Every structure is written in C-alpha cells, then in structure tokens.
C-alpha cells in the first residue's frame, strides 16, 4: 500500500496549525499569520518592554523621591509607560493599522488589569517585606514587572493585536 506523502504532510501541517493556533500564531492586522511568528514578535516585544520599563521605573523612582506614595507613583509611571508601549507595539511589534480606536480601548482595558495586578502584587510584597530603602522597593517592583510582562505579552498578542 502506497502512502501519499503530500497528503500526509498536508494533514500533519493542518493538525499542527490547529494545535498551535492558540499559542504561536501572530496577531497581524492584515491576516498574514504564519506559524512560529512568536520567535519574531517576542524579541521586539521584549525590546519595547525594556524601553517602556526603563521609562516606567525612572518615573517611579522620580515620583518616590518626590515623596509620593508608592501606589500613586506606580500608577502614574505605569500609565505613561503603557501609552508609550501601545504606540510602539502597534507600529513595530504587531504591525496593526486597522481598528485603532477599538485596539486602544482593548489595550487600555488590559493595561488597567495589568495595573491592578501590579498594585496588588506590589502591595502584598511591600506589606510582607516592609522595605525602607528605595533600592529594595525597586527590586520588589522588578519582581512584579516580570510577572506582569508575561501576562501583557499574551494578552496583547491574542486579544489587542489579533487579526480581525
């Protein structure tokens, strides 16, 4: 019995595509998704995230040094950095140009949920460790940032910047 290798290959690719569609397909606005695009998008998202984090933490440190409460400081710095992140990720990471108003609303809905997670985790850590030094506060903020970064990537990839 002869096996049609083209048919077998096509069936395999279809099964892999179905399996990976929830995890590895990009959120391109023009519907040009290809498997394993996460390998292209994730490093760009990481670079944008690093720049946004530097902006966020710099503002956070400035606000703390001005005597603001850490929740007020993290809120203000977070929203400035989130605005920056939306603009850059829209243009360079996920390359979406369509439905901008809807994407802004979704993006900031996710940003608000990420902010809530940030404040909750930061409050738990601050109450648990009661840091007095600004370096320790920045370290705890870094720990929270890592958790929220992973959350943000997947939420924005599969919700905000998905193909419509």
Account of the protein in words:
The N and C termini lie far apart (44 Å). This protein is an all-alpha fold and 164 residues long. It has helices at residues 5-20, 38-65, 70-93, 100-129, 134-160. The chain has one domain. Helix 2 runs antiparallel to helix 3 (70-93). The protein has 5 helices and no strands.
Q: What is the structure about, briefly put?
A:
By secondary structure, the protein is mainly α.
The structural domain count equals 1
Radius of gyration: 20 Å
Order of helices and strands: HHHHH
- Average pLDDT, all residues: 78
Query: Helix/strand/pairing class, anyone?
Result: mainly alpha
Parts with pLDDT < 50 across at least 5 consecutive residues? 11-33
Question: What profile does the largest beta sheet have?
Answer: none
